[in-house]
Amino acid sequence: MDTLAKRLKDITTAVHLLREHGVSVGYPMQTGTGEIIFAVGNEFILTAEQLLELHKRGELHPEGVLKLVGTPAPATFARKKAASP
Fold it and tell me: Is there a contact between 39 and 23 (Cβ–Cβ < 8 Å)?
């Protein structure tokens, strides 16, 4: 059952999970080829497919995003919750 409604719900869930981990996620944007993308952590651009793959693997957290993009954490990608009292 891979309907459009289920896919949109899964993408929304993925975005909310990342935000719960203190990662900023921008509004969805669409490329000229129709691909849905998100600004993640003000440092990266991830596709909806990448977000869904992270969700499927249980890696919707800052470390999972960094592992996906293959880069060390920039200073601005620190967890917001860690900075909170």
Answer: no
